[in-house]
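I am writing to request your help with a piece of structural work I have in hand. I set the record out below, with my sincere thanks for your time.
___
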Amino acid sequence: MKKRSGPAPRTPTLQDPLTSNRDRNHKPRLLLAEDNVIARLVSLRFLERLGYTADVAVNGLEAVQMADQEAYDAILMDCDMPVLDGCTAAALIRRLRGPSATAPIIALTASTDRSLCLKAGMNDHLTKPCTLEEMRGALERWAPLSGGRGTG
């Protein structure tokens, strides 16, 4: 058996400044599910201006698959998408119990009724076209930049 040389691996502790800084500087991981190129670019630009970045799904099925594989702090979900609509995708994300099953889902829609979005398991609703301030408000409620998930 070979003896390991060099310092022992560092084990983080509760007082570890690296851990504390990571928590304090946590940048929420977002998923944007949007099929329309223009709406996707506008949403990504808003997110950038607000200090966020996001992974992108171009249809509801892709959003479900990504949410089942990755842990997101919040999901921005268009409701009218091909392959699988946003309400069905949200309901599936909740049922799959993947790493994002409890992530807040914010509807981004021009046509779907708020009550249908909430019934499908979404937490909030933004009507498109939404303003930068409306998006800021929803993200501050559900995925604040200051760390961790919001309280809703």
Remarks:
- The helical segments are 17-24, 37-49, 60-69, 86-96, 114-119, 132-142.
- Confidence is low (pLDDT under 50) at residues 6-24.
- The longest helix spans residues 37-49.
